[in-house]
Amino acid sequence: MIRKTIKIVNKLGMHARPATMIVKAATKFRSEFKIVKSDMEINGKSIMGVMTLAAEYGSELELVADGVDEEFLIKEIAEMFAAKFGEE
Amino acid sequence: MLEPVPLDENGLTIKVGNMKKISVKEFYKIKKKDLSLSLITHPNTMQGDITTSFLNRPGLALTGYFERFDYNRIQILGETEISYLQSLKEKDLYNNIKETFVYNIPAIIITKGLSIPKQIEFLANEMRIPIFSSRLSTDKLFNSLRIFLQGIFALSKTIHGTLVDVFGVGILLTGKSGIGKSECALELVERGQRIITDDVVKITSKEDILVGCGTNDYGHFMEVRGIGLIDVAKMFGIQAVRMKKRIDVQIELMPWKDNMDYERIGLSDNFVEILGNNVPIIYLPISPGKNIAVIIEVVAMNHISKLFGYDAAKEYTNKLQEDLTRKAKIRENQIEKKE
User: Fold this and answer.
1) Pick from B109, B115, B177, B267: most CB atoms within 10 A?
2) pTM for this model (two decimals)
3) What is the pLDDT of residues A16-31, one digit of tens each?
4) How far apart are the C-alpha atoms of B186 and A82, rounded to whole Å?
């Protein structure tokens, strides 16, 4: 199991488009994927789950992956956050 | 009632009544290059419309026999016709052509770039009938002209699928044979929905809407794998069927694939083109244990709800967006206070 803390750096926060990007990327992997925000823990492969977090600009999230390809999953997802999902 | 479907020589369906037309001028503009056409007569001869996709070789009409002369079609003159005309005495030629040109011929095309007797050109100008010369052979001209005209006039086609009326929304179910279109339609009928036709849907484009119906008037028969033919109207009652229905949404049933990009939120709409009309399409993955009939009802209700101006996907994402903006502001204020 790997854990990685990341920060939302795109101005709009995690709205529908980034949420879809995360879910689509995560479902390619076999590992289990969870996202934790304060007291909320959701399944990172579920679109409703990810949107329910309502993670705004500047907030912190913890990515948790568990499985055979966990490191690749975390790496790809973390890169998407860092690249601001192609936004500002 | 179902209208009988006229078929042309190629077995393609053609539309009856309210036919489209294309003006000769427009035709010349579009096909000039493809058919290597040049106008022999004066430009003001191009005044009529082409109203049918059929072509005609006048043959006997040139000899003076006008019974069943299809004058409203484009007339093609090949080597046979031209050599016949050239063999005529001047006076006979004049009379025959004049008689032919009395008919309202939309256009004449001479193939192979053959030259025509001056008298014909004179009469055509006089009687306002456009004559074009094409460098193509008669056969080639026939082929490409027909393909072009059929594209213009063919406004109906048949496709493999099942058409159902779900809460008044016409849903065209498509997908590979054996994926379960018929079974799905049966389940919808069980739930009080109606079936228009199974397996083969004849789609006609009427102005900017698509209407689907069956291809024959035998009734609402359907094949269920393992059982054979059943009569839906006899079995489920007359309320289970209808004759035709506007097509609002297409649903393509497909086996579940892990790497396929299925719609997750519903903000972007996919469209498919049918007879020049854009129809919203939903790619629906199916897997064992999934109740497709319920999902199809949901698609129909969602469609109606969008027509009434309520889009659930937009509603939710807008709310999320507002929430994110609000929270980001609160965070900003907190940071400023600390500083």
Assistant:
1) B109
2) 0.62
3) 999 999 999 999 999 9
4) 50
Q: Is B146 a known active-site residue?
A: no
Write out the two tokens for B44.
Answer: 């003001």
**Interhelix angle B90-101/B118-126, nearest 10 degrees:** 30
Q: What is B234-261 written as a DSSP string?
A: HHH-GGGB-SEEE--EEEEEEE--TT--
Q: What CATH number does the domain located at B22-153 have?
A: 3.40.1390.20
| pLDDT tens per residue, range B299-324 | 999 999 999 999 999 999 999 999 99
Contact at 8 Å (CB) between A86 and A58?
no
Interface test with A, best of B259, B263, B264 (most A CBs within 10 A): B264
Residue B220 appears among annotated catalytic residues: no
Active site annotation includes B181 = yes
Read off the pLDDT band of A11 (50, 70, 90).
Answer: very high
Residue B67 in this model has a pLDDT that exceeds 50: yes
Pairing of strands B37-39, B131-134: antiparallel
- pLDDT for A51: 93
Is the CATH code 3.40.50.2000 the one for domain B158-308?
Answer: no
Instruction: Please count the CA atoms within 13 angstroms of the CA of B282 that sit on its side-chain side.
Output: 22
Q: Which residues of A touch B (CB under 8 A)?
A: 11-16, 19-20, 23-24, 27-28, 47, 51, 54-59
Q: Which CATH superfamily is domain A2-86 in?
A: HPr-like (3.30.1340.10)
